[in-house]
Design brief:
The structure holds two protein chains of two kinds. Chain A is mostly helical. Helix content of chain A is 78%, strand content 1%. The chains are: A mainly alpha, B mainly alpha. Chains A and B meet through helix 1, helix 4, helix 5, helix 6 and helix 7 of A and helix 1, helix 3, helix 4, helix 5 and helix 6 of B. Chain A: Belongs to the binding-protein-dependent transport system permease family. CysTW subfamily. Chain A: One of its GO terms (molecular function) is phosphate transmembrane transporter activity. Chain A: Pfam families: BPD_transp_1.
Chain lengths: 298, 281
């Protein structure tokens, strides 16, 4: 009986470990497969034009075989920066307030809010942006600054993105601040520092690497978000000169043109290259922050 | 005195920031509910699109609701089959190889950050490579690739908090690695497992960009995995761009239904976590 049981257990073990190794190998290979797959698919375009020419040129007319990604890259960059500057300070201040000053019930309530906000699908944020943010900016905000705008512009995209990245940033920032040992705070306070000085000099310094990681999460979220941005940003191929003009970020380019990409030569290749660009930027970004965080933890 | 003013200034700034997050949250929910409430009807929930649906005639979005559920269930199932062993293995079988686990964690974090549209494009590239058509199956595979890293990392964070003594105790009683993983650690991580599953499910049901190329779109409910399927996010997206007011109304209704499903999931996951926390060390 015991022997039978042991034999069965041995086989269960073998199969289970075999499957474990297989799926772990699969997960290790997945990033490589995605990168390689996109390179192969975008190869026809890369073969024909120089890479620097593709990302440096503004000339976008697929019908004539001209593929310049410059406008899209700049659009992506602007919208990411804009949403970062709108959301990062707010998130940092809110996280400090909730973890250091606010009563317990408020923090609990906020965790619920974060949960719900993080769960709301991006297309719903997009619909909300069209309903609320676009008219607001088109009719009220732009005229204040003396610009005429339809409201479908860089700023709308930035605002919607900023709101979307709040739950991710805030959640991680709160975690970082809560994980700093209380003794550090107590030591600082007992040396006569005020509460705010303690936060400024001890808490923020101690949590620096975590804060960087949290902000990175927000940025990479903003960079790749597709549907919500696409719905409010206007989608005009140009380099925007102010935040009330329309832009056309990379993800929107891919999503908008999947329908007719097979009918024009090289077009599919160009869209694959846009995806590859996004993929490379995100991975590089991750490596950079990882190195930063790891160095500080050592 | 100056110190005092500085602290007060920042305190008010922080209150303002917290208040504005709450305010935006309230406005967001209010607008979705207010716009969607009038548009939701039994007809919308229970009927598939009839002739002339996209010109404001009769019908509903039942096909998109069912399609989304099929897609989310299928991809979550795949994500669990792939992800559960990896998450457990990172903390048990591979636990001693710290360097390997760190590399794996880094790769999973990087994959978490990769936008869903990139997964969508990759899924499309796979599809054309294997000469498949846009279908439920292609959608399920793409979404599974997209949510598996999220699922693994969420579960991994939970398993990491389990004390190391438990691993040693289990091994010293003669249990194999597999037994330790599934009978000891999995049980401890059950509430976290449920939360991670629901998180992955929520992501799967709400994402539009990854299914845009791979799942197709249709007015009927798919009968097999080889048929294309409609999904709620795409139903919202397509109908919102229509110039006809009735069709736009339906987009708001669909947005409310989708938000309702997500809200339901997050409340259920909270309740589960509370209920099963009792059985844990």
């Amino acid at each position: 009986m015991t022997i039978l049981f042991t034999i069965r257990q041995k086989w269960v073990d073998r199969i289970s470990n075999g499957w474990l190794n297989a799926v772990t190998f699969f997960m290790l290979l997945l990033p490589l497969a995605i990168g390689l797959g996109l390179v192969i698919e975008s190869f026809p375009l890369l073969h024909k034009y120089a890479f620097t020419q593709l990302i440096g040129s503004s000339d976008w007319s697929p019908m004539d075989g001209k593929f310049g990604f410059y406008d899209f890259i700049v659009g992506s960059l602007w919208i990411t920066l804009l949403s970062f500057f709108l959301s990062a300070p707010v998130c940092l201040l809110t996280a400090i307030y909730l973890t250091q000053y606010a009563p317990g019930w408020l923090m609990k309530l906020m965790y619920f809010v974060i949960d719900v906000l993080a769960g709301i699908p991006s297309v719903v944020y997009g619909a909300w942006g069209v309903l609320v943010i676009v008219p607001l900016i088109g009719a009220y905000v732009a005229p204040i600054f003396g610009f005429a705008s339809t409201g479908y512009c860089l700023l709308s995209g930035g605002v919607v993105l900023a709101i979307m990245s709040v739950p991710y940033m805030l959640n991680m920032l709160m975690e970082v601040l809560l994980n700093i040992p209380v003794e550090l705070k107590e030591a600082s306070l007992s040396l006569g520092a005020t509460y705010w000085e303690t936060i400024k000099h001890v808490l923020l310094k101690q949590g620096k690497s975590g804060i960087i990681a949290a902000l990175n999460l927000g940025i990479s979220k903003a960079l790749g978000e597709t549907i919500a941005v696409l719905m409010v940003v206007g989608n005009v191929v140009q380099v925007p000169h102010n935040i009330f003009q329309a832009a056309y970020p990379l993800p929107a380019l891919i999503a908008n043109n999947y329908g007719d990409m097979m009918s024009i030569p090289m077009y599919a290749s160009a869209l694959m290259l846009s995806a590859l660009l996004l993929f490379i930027i995100i991975i590089l970004f991750n490596i950079l922050t990882n190195a930063l965080v790891y160095q500080r933890n050592k | 005195m100056k110190k005092k003013i500085e602290e007060q200034f920042f305190l008010w700034l922080m209150r303002l920031a917290t208040g504005s997050v709450m305010f935006v949250f309230a406005i967001l929910l209010l607008v979705i509910i207010k716009k969607g409430w009038h548009a939701v009807s039994w007809q919308i929930i229970s009927e598939v699109p009839q002739g002339g649906f996209y010109f404001g005639k009769a019908g509903g979005i039942f096909n998109a609701i069912i399609g989304s559920l099929y897609l989310a269930f299928g991809s979550t199932f795949l994500a669990v089959i792939i992800g559960l062993p990896v998450a457990l293995g990172m903390n048990i079988q591979f636990a001693r190889n710290k360097r390997f686990v760190r590399i794996l964690r880094f790769l999973l974090d990087a994959l978490w950050g990769v936008p869903s549209i990139v997964f969508g494009v990759f899924g499309f590239a796979l599809m054309t490579y294997f000469h498949l058509r846009a279908s439920l199956l292609a959608g399920i595979i793409t979404v599974a690739l997209f949510i598996t890293p999220i699922f693994i990392r969420a579960l991994d964070e939970v398993i990491r908090t389990i004390p190391e003594g438990l691993l040693e105790a289990s091994f010293s009683l003669g249990a194999t690695q597999t037994r330790t993983a599934y009978s000891v650690f999995f049980r401890q991580a059950l509430p976290g497992f449920i939360t991670a599953v629901l998180l992955a499910f929520g992501r799967g049901i709400g994402d539009a960009a990854s299914v845009l190329f791979t799942a197709g779109y249709t007015d009927s409910i798919p009968h097999s995995v080889n048929e294309p399927t409609a999904t709620l996010p795409l139903a919202i997206f397509f109908q919102l761009s229509s110039p006809i007011p009735e069709v736009k109304q339906r987009a708001y209704a669909a947005a409310l239904i989708l938000t309702g499903i997500i809200l339901f999931i997050s409340i259920v996951s909270r309740l589960f976590t509370k209920k099963y926390k009792k059985n844990i060390l």
